[in-house]
Design goal:
The structure holds 2 protein chains of 2 kinds. By secondary structure, chain A is an all-alpha fold. Chain A has a single domain, classed as Cytochrome C Oxidase, Chain A (Up-down Bundle), CATH 1.20.210. In chain A, helix 4 packs antiparallel against helix 5, helix 4 packs parallel to helix 17 and helix 13 runs antiparallel to helix 14. Chain A is globular and about 75 Å long. In chain B, 77% of the residues lie in helices and 0% in strands. The relative contact order of chain B is 0.16. Classes of the chains: A mainly alpha, B mainly alpha.
Chain lengths: 665, 209
């Protein structure tokens, strides 16, 4: 993956401004390295954090992809016994969980981290160390929730992988019916929830508070706007699943009866709580995608985004309505007619702002000087494929029709059209669009188009037939089907398509490696871009902007390139001689490790396994102590900081000046 | 230049770095977190309500169990602690460390008083009425909800006591006002949530519907 070009345009002078470290902080002396392993482990630089999010997300994309291929292999022919039924259940559970929480969300988070500060003209996020904490906690959650695959290999433990579906409906999850795998799922999602909420809080503050001077809210680039909406969705939706999971934990570990009918509990409560989170979650996956596409389309059409304001408001309305539609996942659970009607209407209403966006994207490319680059065709593919997913979505919104489609492959086809054809295509748009900025290298268009068309063909061959399969009566999550049900042909086609899609993704990784190794230098502005990230070098210097830009219009960088008077404005922006940077820190990672240890302890609490202190409160307490110690170390360490001096002139060479240590507190 | 750098740093350290909205980053973070926490308690309270609206058979007779008088006293204590919290913020803003410490101790003291009374109530429930976490669904939702609130209060107490001890290090002055204020926001929120819990879990049980 792309590496930060260290100190390419800066002379670094580090200075320990922080006074004596207190207590535990002494043991973890403030790291100063910005390169090497320690540099990456302790970094608070949003760009490095973004890259690490991206690498981890792509790794989990492969893991989830292999799981998907195994599922498709099992379903290729009728009555197949290629894999066991238990493994099959584990695979579809982990495929969904991995793709949503460990691939698509963090791939989005990679762009949040890398691009947002650049787009809004900031030097970093509002809370750099908290940002590092989100990364490490996400990684801890990813490792934790996948631990079962390794534990299953041990003779002493079985059922360590969850097999309850990504939705974990009660009572599949009750202690009677499932093993320690469910505990791994419960605490894994809890950890990922912490990571997401903390990151979202950070981005809310960053986008609202850290904009460059002159960048009013209605000048904020659309991607940043959609991330703001997404962040609000995250902080308001995730608490619902936190509570749902906490109640489940109480049921499983401490014998309560929230979802246990024996106690008078109602399993349906889980469904409500889960979907109050779960439906906003799908907008959490799609809104950043819409933001990315809204950046790429204007750039490659050489036109401003058509109807900027209405696109922003549509995004906000989608976010708000997203909280009022959760029960459309539950039309078949026996809701009252009035509830069904209300949720059906609210669901259909969401199609309006979505349609508005699609028409505005068409308006953007209408009459533009379109360049069919790889990111552009991914963005166009997004519009088309997302619309197909949207249309089948409207069909589900009609409650009577949904009764027919519910839990069939028709639904599987629908949400893969919005999640692959929608989210993933847009994330690929983003990767091709911004990777020249991240790596400083340019990719070959020819191979890029091969990647797109292979993925596009594979995706449609996989999932379009699933509409037919679903309407033909094939239930989702089914392990086998009989040969005389008329499902054979399309299942085989779908499996072949899945492998083509897999080849497309592999081709992308090959493309990525080729580009990083042999790509030509991309220059600062390879696409003739419109937003501020294209005004700085590729890859950007550690401090992003030598001079904080004074923003005077919506497409600021475009305006600067096109309007001569604005060019003069830039000349008045003097690069700062000394830029304050936050110091790296060990503590974010330490707290995350504490969470990881505590979670292992909790997952094993009632497992019946008792080795190395597992099955007792020992490890949860150790985890809690590490978390507490880490938080105190973090708080007393302070933000710290050192100064960077952007080079004034190219070739001024050995300009280095030692800053006096600042003790004047 | 080093002078300019110094002021810049001091400002940033106390979160007073100029922001677009004029609201310091830390404060906005806390407000957003509290919005999230609202949903958190909202879901817990809703869970409790769901099982109170249609109580499963075998639910205890709550009018005979709940003791409004003693909970009112603890509620009063918690609400008054908010007043002391506000005074602590004021005191540190005026650089009056002595008053700051007194007010923080009073806040924490009342918070502890609240916890003590609530713990007595739990003890009472368990030993007088055999109401435990697993004895009935009301027990499950009641202990989970009030327990979660207790954990919030405990975190608040630890946070405030950290400021109390830190104030002896000589590093706290009027510039720490923002930090204390952020802790105060959290503390007030925990109190406000208790007003909702007190109303919904305790008072509503005595309304004949």
């Amino acid at each position: 993956m792309p590496m930060q070009n260290e100190g390419s345009s800066a002379k670094v002078i580090t200075e320990e401004r922080e006074s004596k470290p207190v207590g535990l902080a002494r043991a973890f002396k403030r790291p100063t390295a910005t390169t090497g392993l320690v540099g990456w482990l302790t970094t608070v630089d949003h760009k490095k954090i973004g890259i690490m999010y991206g690498v981890a997300a792509l790794f989990f994309l492969i893991v989830g992809g292999i799981e998907a291929l195994l599922i498709r292999m099992q379903l290729a022919v009728p009555n197949s016994e290629l894999i066991s039924a238990q493994l099959y259940n584990e695979l579809f559970t982990m495929h969904g969980t991995t793709m949503i929480f460990l691939a698509v969300m963090p791939l989005g988070a990679a762009f949040f981290n890398y691009i947002i500060p650049l787009q809004i003209g900031a030097r970093d996020v509002a809370f750099p160390r908290l940002n590092a904490f989100s990364l490490w906690t996400f990684l801890a959650g990813g490792i934790f929730i996948n631990t079962g695959w390794i534990l299953n290999m041990l003779p002493a433990i079985d059922k360590a992988v969850p097999k309850i579906g990504w939705f974990g409906y009660a009572n599949l999850t009750s202690a009677e019916f499932s093993g320690i795998g469910t505990d791994f799922w419960v605490f894994g999602l809890q950890i990922l929830g912490i990571a997401s909420i903390v990151a979202a809080l950070n981005f809310i503050v960053t986008i609202i508070n850290m904009r460059a001077p002159g960048m009013t809210m209605m000048r904020v680039p659309l991607f940043s706007w959609m991330v703001l909406v997404t962040s609000f969705l995250i902080i308001l939706a995730f608490p619902a699943i936190t509570i749902a999971l906490a109640c489940l934990m109480m049921d499983r570990l401490f014998g309560t009866g929230f979802y246990e009918p024996v106690f008078g509990g109602q399993p349906i409560l889980w469904q409500h709580l889960f979907w109050i989170f779960g439906h906003p979650e799908v907008y959490i996956l799609i809104l950043p995608a819409m933001g990315i596409v809204s950046e790429a389309l204007p750039t490659f059409s050489r036109k401003p985004l058509f109807g900027y304001a209405i696109i922003v408001f549509s995004g906000v309305i989608i976010g708000v309505l997203g909280f009022a539609v959760w029960a459309h996942h539950m039309f078949t659970t026996g809701l009252s007619t009035i509830a069904k009607t209300a949720f059906a209407l609210a669901t259909m209403a969401i199609a309006v702002p979505t349609g508005v966006k699609i028409f505005n994207w068409i308006g953007t490319i209408w009459g533009g000087q379109i360049r069919f680059t790889t990111p552009m065709i991914f963005a166009l593919g997004f519009i088309w494929m997302f619309m197909i997913g949207g249309f089948s979505g409207i069909m589900h919104a009609a409650a009577p029709a949904d009764g027919q489609q519910h839990d069939t492959y028709f639904v599987v086809a629908h949400f893969h059209y919005v999640l692959i054809g929608g989210s993933l295509f847009a994330l690929f748009t983003g990767m091709y669009y911004w990777i020249p900025k991240v790596s400083g290298k340019m990719f070959s268009e020819k191979l890029g188009k091969w990647v797109f068309w292979t993925m596009f063909a594979g995706f449609n061959i996989t999932f379009f037939p699933q509409h037919f399969l679903g309407l033909g009566g094939m239930p989702r999550r089914t392990y086998q089907y009989d040969a005389d049900m008329g499902l054979n042909t399309w299942n085989m086609v779908s499996t072949i398509g899945a492998f083509i899609l897999g080849i497309g993704i592999l081709l992308f990784f090959y493309h990525l490696v080729m580009m990083l190794r042999k790509g030509a230098p991309s220059g600062n502005d390879p696409w003739d871009g419109r937003t501020l990230e294209w005004s700085i070098s590729s890859p950007p210097p550690e401090y992003n902007f030598a001079a904080v830009p004074m923003v005077t219009s919506r497409d600021e960088y475009w305006a600067r390139k096109m309007i001569p008077e604005k060019k003069k404005l830039i000349e008045n922006e003097k690069p700062e001689k000394s830029i304050h940077m936050p110091s790296p820190s060990w503590f974010p990672m330490i707290v995350s490790i504490g969470i990881l240890i505590g979670a292992y302890g909790m997952a094993f609490l009632k497992s019946g396994y008792s080795f190395v202190g597992l099955g007792t409160l020992f490890w949860p307490i150790v985890g809690l102590l590490i978390i507490t110690a880490g938080i105190y170390g973090w708080a007393f360490e302070g933000p710290g900081g050192y100064h960077l001096h952007p080079e004034e002139e190219e070739g001024s060479g050995g300009y280095r000046k030692k800053e006096p240590s600042d003790k004047s507190k | 230049m080093s002078q300019a750098v110094a002021t810049h740093d001091t400002h940033e350290e106390h979160g007073e770095h100029p922001t677009c909205t004029g609201i310091p980053n830390k404060k906005m973070f806390m407000w957003a977190f509290l919005a999230s926490d609202c949903m958190f308690f909202g879901c817990l309270i809703a869970t409790h309500m769901v099982y109170r609206i249609s109580p499963p058979p075998g639910s205890p007779d709550l009018q005979g169990i709940l003791d409004i008088e003693i909970v009112s006293i603890s509620t009063f204590l918690l609400l008054m602690s908010s007043l002391m919290m506000a005074l602590s913020v004021h005191a540190i803003g005026k650089n009056n460390l002595k008053s700051f410490r007194r007010c923080i101790l009073a806040t924490v003291g009342m918070g502890m008083g609240f916890l003590l009374i609530q713990s007595y109530e739990w003890y009472h429930f368990v030993h007088e009425y055999d109401l435990t976490l697993t004895s009935s669904l009301f027990g499950s939702t009641f202990y989970t909800l009030t327990g979660t609130h207790k954990i919030h209060v405990i975190i608040g107490i630890i946070w405030l006591m950290t400021y109390y001890f830190y104030s002896f290090s000589g590093k706290m002055d009027h510039k720490s006002e923002l930090d204390v204020e952020v802790a105060g926001l959290y503390w007030h929120f925990v109190d406000i949530v208790w007003i909702v819990i007190f109303t919904v879990v305790f008072l509503l049980e005595f309304v004949d519907m």
